[in-house]
Amino acid sequence: MRTFDLAPLYRATVGFDRIADLMDRVLASDVAQPAYPPYNIEKIDENAYRISIAVAGFSADELNAEVKDGALIVSARKAADETERTFLHRGIATRAFERRFALADHVRVTGASHELGMLHIDLVRETPEALKPRRIEISKRADVEAKAVEAETV
Question: Pairing relation of β-strands 97-102 and 39-45?
Fold first, then answer.
């Protein structure tokens, strides 16, 4: 397996710590990601996304979703079953889980819903006004000189 030294990235950049940390985590994870529970990530619109997680067997009260340190953390813990049941075959997994999704800058969770065994989490990317492109009006040279003259006479 290849290893990459990201030290030059840390020395030559300022403010990109989050990207470098993300690269460190991706490159350093030798452990395979768990496949439970299965999920989809879909792009709804140019700036809207939805994460759908299959949570069969869990009620809305047993699910938890929170945003912490730039990550969406979805977890579930099944309440203790008070009745003693005997399964001949147990194919529906209701074991506890925690799934993390790294969120990009300016991505915000707008809501979550639980229906038909699926947990849907809606996200939107909100670009701040300071980062949006803005059009700069280009004036003629004569207009600039006239404005400079007006500023000096006032």
Answer: unpaired
- The span from the CA of 130 to the CA of 68, in Å, is 24
Whether residues 15 and 70 fall in one domain: no
Number of domains in the chain: 2
- pTM score: 0.66
Is residue 144 within a helix (H) or strand (E), and if so which, with residue range? helix 141-153
Do the beta carbons of residue 112 and residue 120 sit within 8 Å? yes
pLDDT digits (tens, 9 = 90+) for 24-35: 766 666 556 677
- DSSP string computed for 76-95: E-PPPP-S----S---S---
Same domain for 120 and 144?
A: yes
